[in-house]
Amino acid sequence: LAASGVKELGICDFDVVDETNLQRQILFNDKSVGKDKALEAKTKITELNPNVKVTVFNEMITSKNAESIVKDFDLVIDGSDNFATRYLINDACVLLDKPLVFGAVSQFEGQVAVFNVLKDGYALNYRDFFPVPPKEGEVLSCADGGVLGVLPGIIGVMQAIEVIKLIAGIGNVLANQMLIYNALKNTNYTMQVEKHQDS
How confident is the model at residue 197 (pLDDT cuts 50, 70, 90)? Predict the structure, then answer.
């Protein structure tokens, strides 16, 4: 997005770069290990495009700060790796009426969707697809199941495409639907969800 000419980006992450991140988080390298992810991301983005304003939130997003972090941005991109954060980001975007470009990966499969964007007369959010968070141990975590190293890059680029389409007002965004990509088969399909009559 920085290379595409997006003028302002915000990055929220509380973690530090670990050596095990390097096979899938290509913004970082060996010299990044041990550094704050959000601050290191800002450095790399600024090196790529010094005209981009990068605001860093070097903290965990919580119910107490989510709205204040989200409120000043035109749209939100979620690349989080746990369900609690996904629901939290979704809810903040619903409350503030912000488009949300969602991406998730697990093992060899990825998901991309656009939430809170009006299409065909309605706008769905993450909870319309997944109303109830899974119970602990019900879904294999990335730590347990692993992730094919190139997959986050593929899904991230797909998210960036949706962001560009939203900004430019072009194409058919993945609103009210979810794209599922399978890296082993190199296939994808799109799941359409209709608004529930009671919603």
Answer: low
Sequential DSSP letters for 90-138: HHHHHHHT--EEEEEEEBTEEEEEEES--BTTB---HHHH--SPPPTTT
DSSP letters for 28-86: --GGGTTSBHHHHHHHHHHHH-TTSEEEEE-S---TTTHHHHHTTSS-EEE--SSHHHH
Residue in the structure block whose two tokens are 């619903």:
94
Write the DSSP assignment of 1-36 as a string of letters. Answer: -TTTT--EEEEE---B--GGGTTT-TT--GGGTTSB
Tokens of 37: 């992810």
The residue with greater pLDDT, 194 or 98, is 98
pLDDT at residue number 42:
98
Element (H, E) at 151: helix 151-168
pLDDT above 70 covers a percentage of the chain that reads 96
State CA 179 to chain mean position distance. 14
Q: Which residue has the tokens 């997005």?
A: 1
- Banded model confidence at residue 63, pLDDT cuts 50, 70, 90: very high
